[in-house]
Amino acid sequence: MTVTVRFAPSPTGNIHIGNARTALFNWLFARKNGGRFVQRFDDTDQARSKQEFADQILYDLHWLGIFPDKVDHQSRRFERYQAAVERLKAAGLLYPCYETPDELELKRKIRLSRKLPPIYGREALALGDEDRAALEAEGRKPHWRFLLPNYQRDPSETQRTDISWNDIVRGEETVDLASLSDPVLIRADGTYLYTLPSVVDDIEMGITHVIRGDDHVTNTGVQIALFKALGADAPAFGHHNLLTAASGEGLSKRSGALSIASLREDGIEPMAIASLAVLTGTSENIEPVPSMGDLAEKFDPAAASRSAAKFDPADLVHLNRALLQTMPFTAVRDRLVAFGVGGERAEAFWLAVRGNLDRLSDAARWWEVVSKDYRPDVPFAEADAAFLADAFALLPDEPWNGETWKAWTSAVKDKTGRKGKALFRPLRLALTGLESGPELSDLLPLLGREETLARRP
Ligand code: GLU
């Protein structure tokens, strides 16, 4: 069976780096196993879900380097969920309940005071047709619970029922179904909770591996039971640890600054985000990985630890800098055009400045520094001015190359007796107006003799 995974966010906001971790775990898993990636939008909550968010999520995934084989929306599949509901009802596995939240809370307290586990006591199973008619005549609408298979004959006598799976990330996991309330699958207003639509889709879309955050571990016992109730084999499951900020606080759709869109606007490279999102909280070092193929080679879901994956957003800038430092010109040529960088000097320029960038957009500043009309206006003390006059008089003839700077500065050193900082600082200031920057041996051929001479103070 072809490995098939899915990434299933609700399109109720922008995705952040923590969601990207889930998407990437799935994408890399599919990639390693020659599998397929289904993009599923869990948009049964039609009031909060928006097509703009779904579009934005797809855009963000593409930008990160994730290209779904298929895109689907739960809001287009309600009749499939209805069909599953009918089957569960016919099998007596979905039953109507009428308690209000206050009544449920009271029942919970009573059970706790009797030292019973605070789970739903299945009182609604005892209701007859007349009781239900009377409750509905009061204006109550039923919500529907799935009868968990945690009893032998009598549902009111539950017994320990372990559901186990070999988690791709966490290893052996077990949930005792007798420790859980029968889950509500349909609310009183007729809307679905996520549990049933997700299982129906996983079955019908041929999902073989469900990889998601460890906040879903307890859902898995229920969902495995639901797969069985619907006559299907459960897929394999993997639950990865969640990314949390250094403060220990979890990320939410409201973590605006860490949304993929805002990181992109801030000039963070997709592979910086992917490297951090995937490698944090694993046994691998966090390092800049240049391509998705390289990241797939490093990726091992079982390397993720069980504790929270704490990360420092500042690491994104370090990773970004490191990625840019070795990025080939072909990878940035088109994007540099947006900063005005083009023409025959573009490649040499890129190789000269890429080690000095926090963000690609910083290239614009260096392009200005090597542009023809840039005139650094630095006031020099008399001694430095005299030194520079001597130095510029010694500029070699063209053609210039990577050796020209060395040849020139050796001649200047011989003539003036200056060396080290006293030699290099005034030259750098005269040529760039700045204290530091790319290697002058790279910048000099970019400027050319005429332009260099024009910068003589
Ligand atoms: N829509 C669910 C979520 O975003 C999907 C969980 C799952 O992958 O099963 O939490």
Automatic annotation (TrEMBL):
Its EC number is 6.1.1.17. It catalyses: tRNA(Glu) + L-glutamate + ATP = L-glutamyl-tRNA(Glu) + AMP + diphosphate. It is found in: Cytoplasm. Transmembrane segments: none annotated. Its main location: cytoplasm. SUPFAM superfamilies: An anticodon-binding domain of class I aminoacyl-tRNA synthetases, Nucleotidylyl transferase. Residues 382-455 form the Aminoacyl-tRNA synthetase class I anticodon-binding domain. One of its GO terms (molecular function) is zinc ion binding. It comes from the Bacteria. A motif ('KMSKS' region) lies at residues 250-254. One of its GO terms (biological process) is glutamyl-tRNA aminoacylation. ATP binds at K253. Residues 3-316 form the Glutamyl/glutaminyl-tRNA synthetase class Ib catalytic domain. A motif ('HIGH' region) lies at residues 9-19. CDD domains: GluRS_core (cd00808). It is an enzyme of class 6 (ligase). Keywords: Aminoacyl-tRNA synthetase, ATP-binding, Cytoplasm, Ligase, Nucleotide-binding, Protein biosynthesis. GO terms for cellular component: cytoplasm. Pfam families: Anticodon_2, tRNA-synt_1c. Belongs to the class-I aminoacyl-tRNA synthetase family. Glutamate--tRNA ligase type 1 subfamily. Catalyzes the attachment of glutamate to tRNA(Glu) in a two-step reaction: glutamate is first activated by ATP to form Glu-AMP and then transferred to the acceptor end of tRNA(Glu). Monomer. This is Glutamate--tRNA ligase. It comes from Nitratireductor arenosus.
